[in-house]
Structures are given as structure tokens and as C-alpha cells.
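Q: I'm a student working through a structural biology exercise. My instructor gave each of us a protein and asked us to get a predicted structure, then write a short paragraph describing it. Mine is VTT domain-containing protein. I'm not confident about reading structure output yet, so if you can add a plain explanation after the C-alpha cells, that would really help. Here is the sequence I was given:
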Amino acid sequence: MSVLAASWTDSSSLGYPVLFGGVLLGSIIPVVPTGPLLSVAAAVAMTTDRLDIALVLLLATVAAFLGDVVTFAVARFGGPAAVRWVARGQHAGRLAEVQEQFRAHGWQIVVVGRLLPAGRIPVLVAAGALAYPWRRLLPASFGAAALWAVAYALLGVVSGGIFDSPLVATLVATGLVLVVGLVSNLVASRRRKAKQQAAEQETR
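A: Happy to help. First, here is the predicted structure for VTT domain-containing protein. I'll explain a few features afterward.
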């Protein structure tokens, strides 16, 4: 605990509060790119002695978990206006689709939604609308946050292990995250289109 407290107060370790606060804020209000932020922190940890990779993983996991819990609580207890605010920018059809998937798969959707770009908000809104039990949501959400942290930190670790320069490693880590996000979005888009076409053919 003394090491953790010292790292937060040491002027050379200001990356920890930025990482924790950025991931927490981005998990509640998606204005901060949390994935690239974590990958950059991991890359810095691998190329300098400013950050410790284990502490980076711990703080990112806890921040992501707390942000998801807050989002779920708002969706469940905040009323229609709060739900609309949380789900702003989300297509109504997408929310309905995720809600149906949530009924069938429950906690598995929580994990998948955390890992997929733009998948977290619809899942948490669906969980709140269905009054998903806390005893099931909390362990699923924490496990999802841990997997998310490991996945995005790994991109930073790989880039930091290849390049000795913190700047180059940071740029490569950011690029890897953008590529992964782009590919994931393309795959998800194609799957949705395939499902829509199949549904249209069934109704004919």
C-alpha cells in the first residue's frame, strides 16, 4: 500500500492518476478513448521506468469496472431521461437486438460487449432495462474489465518490446488499437447486415 500511495504522490508518476481518471471517465462518458490510453500507458511502462505494468493493469481494470457499474446503475435506476442520455448516439434497433441477445446469454454478453468497440453501452443499457441482478453483473463486469485491460495492455507491451523509444512505441500502440477497432467494427457491421438480410428473406 505504501508503494501505491507513493506512486500517486510522486511527481514522476503522474501517469497513474491520468490513466485511472481517463479510463473511469471514458467508461461513463465515452469522450476519452480508453483503449488507446491504456495501450499508451503499457507502452510507456515497457520503455521507461515511469510506470509499472502491473499497476497499470490494476488501475485500468478497477477504473473500467467502476465506470461500467456507474453506467449500469444509471441505466437501471435513472429513469427514461437518464437511459436516453446514456444511450445517446445508439440506434434503437441495435439496442433492441442486444436486449434479445442479453436475454439468451446474460453475463457472456457483458464480457463480449466490453471487448468489442462500441459494444459496452448497448449491453449495459440492456442489462439495466432488464434489471439484471447485481450478484451476476458485478463478477461478469469485473472479469470483462480485466480481460479488456489485458487485451489492450498487450498491444502496448508488444510495441514497447519491439521499439526502445517511448514515442515510437506509443505511436505504434495507438495505431494497433485503431486497426483492431476498425477490423472489429467491419466484422460486426457485416454480421449485422447478414442477420438483417436473413431476417428479410424469412419474412418474404
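A: Here are two points you could use in your paragraph. Confidence is low (pLDDT under 50) at residues 1-14. Residues 166-203 form the longest helix (38 residues). It's a good idea to check both against the output above yourself.
Q: Great, thank you!
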